[in-house]
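Tutorial handout. Part one gives the primary structure; part two gives the three-dimensional structure as tokens.
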Amino acid sequence: MLPVIFDEEILLKYAKEHKIQPFRVKQIFYELFKNQNIDWDSMTTLSKDMRKDFSNKFDILNLTVDKVLEDEQTTKFSFKTSDWYFIEAVLMYHWSKHVKWKLNRITLCLSSQVGCPMWCAFCVTGKMWLKRNLTWQEIISQVLYVNNYIKNKFWKKEDGTLRAVRNVVFMWMWEPLLNYDNLKKTIEILLQRERFSLSKRHITISTVWVINGIKKLIQDKIDVWLAVSLHAPTQNLRETIVPSARVHQIPELMKVLNDYIKATNNRIFYEYIMIKWVTDGEVNAKALVKLLKWQLCHVNLIPYNENPLVDFQETSIKEIQNFKKILEDGGLTVTIRDSMGREVKSACGQLGYSSVVSD
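Part two.
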């Protein structure tokens, strides 16, 4: 297995040993991150001899694409790692509601692990269990591949710049704060002006309960958005649908989240799954208001995405709207999340479906 060309430390060492001028290294990074090229033949700012030499010494990505599944709102990518594991990433297209077929922005939901150790009862990914953490190179490879895909699919914006991922969410496979060092390195590259040049306001980390990881974010002053998969307003109910939540009680989680708010002045996004006769209903809504009433936060109500591997049912839209009204009457800011990508099993809780079925 060859090192990836975008590993700056390795590339700079190689360039120094072979007396390659620094501007050539900058050209390579420009081709990758700005021109969104992921094959050597497209990197025409480099000579043929140089491209041939680099291709023998470096890989451009260290993932290969196994499948691509599309619908109108999403594209799901199945990637194969060098040790034959499969991970998935999902692009979500946000179209204008006022101008037909006008694309406003593109969001990428990334994987940071193979499988998931959180075992949420409603989620297919947890049934894969955890195989291993992804390296930062494997995470960045997902972004590079997807940006090249976007370029080929949509080309340029009205201002002449190439279309690319605008928002990145660490949430699919799955618990990013249990892969903290690789997460941190990835975020550094996403923010670098000479690399992806994303805004920290366009990066979200989704977590279940990893308190030590949140403390590290505070310590390292990583003030991106934080989305917490709460899913229940009480500890007993939360443990029923998120068994790993037994590790920390809700009051412990709330304390560290308040510390994060104080350190960053960022609101917390709470993800709340709407499962019929389990997490919905007036009692749960009022308990959620009591828990979050005085916190700087935004609640996302997520319709449960039914699938044959999990024995839950989706709450009706009428009941979700009633739930939302109780929260709003209690002073909370609430959004009902769109369920994008159900048909190709790329919606929340469906990632890894193919891997679980094949096992």
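Part three, for discussion. The first helix runs from residue 8 to 17. Residues 349-359 have pLDDT under 50 and may be disordered.
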